[in-house]
Here is the input.
Amino acid sequence: MSDSYIYDAVRTPFGRFGGALAAVRPDDLAATAITGLLGRSPGLDPAGVGEVVWGNANGAGEDNRNVGRMAVLLAGMPTSVPANTVNRLCGSSLDAAMAASRIVETGDAEVVVAGGVESMTRAPWVLPKPSRAFPAGNVTAVSTTLGWRLVNERMPAEWTVSLGEANEQLADRFGISRERQDEFAVRSHRLAAQAWDEGFYADLVVPVDGVDLDRDEGIRPGSTVEKLAGLKPAFRSDGTITAGNASPLNDGASAVLIGSDAAAATIGRDPVARIAGRGAHALDPQDFGYAPVEAANRALHRAGITWSDVEAVELNEAFAVQSLACVDAWLKEGLVDAEVVNTRGGAIAIGHPLGASGGRILGTLAHRLRTDRQRWGVAAICIGVGQALAVVLENVSSDEVPSA
Here is the structure.
């Protein structure tokens, strides 16, 4: 089996719920990411893409009917390019990239496009389909934007608590204070704003036609712990989680170009990072926020390295509390410094359009490794209903990196 490599990655700016991208269909957002990605490798014939693997979490509206294939067609790729859509909720586009890497490693294709999309603004309200025509009584419309919906009554109640309540339980379990969470959130906004100002994201973000949005819409560089302390708890009257220390609802898309070593000639550019290890983990649904701990550990084991080798971590910030719980665990297991986590900000500031976030953190990690001339990095993401995924990258860019 051959190795698989990341050659390039892009994303759209992430818009706020009801914000600048609200009028853009998710299939169009997905096509924008694909067009932007392929446009940066003009030597690559789109017909040479062996597969497109696309992530999407909701899939109940305009992103139904295999949005990956819709994006291929809307992006103007040849109709001969096959595509499928995967759904692992928040981990969908990281799952897509992992699947793409396996396709390359097994030799089924030399070049694969992976990515994902979510328009949480345009996620529809749905009605359960009746088992017979014209039933008596009323039916309740359910939002598909986020969280549990149309829950099976056979599910234990402790599994189906809200995402916020699940993370309040995590705060109780590990004694993570409101103040720590707010401090973490402020750091996310500060670092994201700084990264944009310094041009870090200029090479990662592609514009959306007809939309006046040149950077992520939710970043608040003026955030302070004092300001966040004034927000009311969102899930418990005496809780610690607020709108300020959790990721918001967002719209956006991401795309990653993955290929074999030999694909460099086909693509017309050198690879940036090798996909060195993959990991998945699952536990009780309400504990989903802590699942990245073991997913990352498994990915590191498969890469043949330890936490002491890791210089860069991209951890999706679904909630500040779950991010802190994961980082605290990794520090105990050998991570050298918590400050290597999300050095260009995270989802609390940048946003978390579910199906696109995995591709975002993977692309950001590859760019960080190249920019900062570091060798090893980890991308990890928690997933509702008790799962997580992680990928280890090794920098193989032409810039000098420390030797083993």
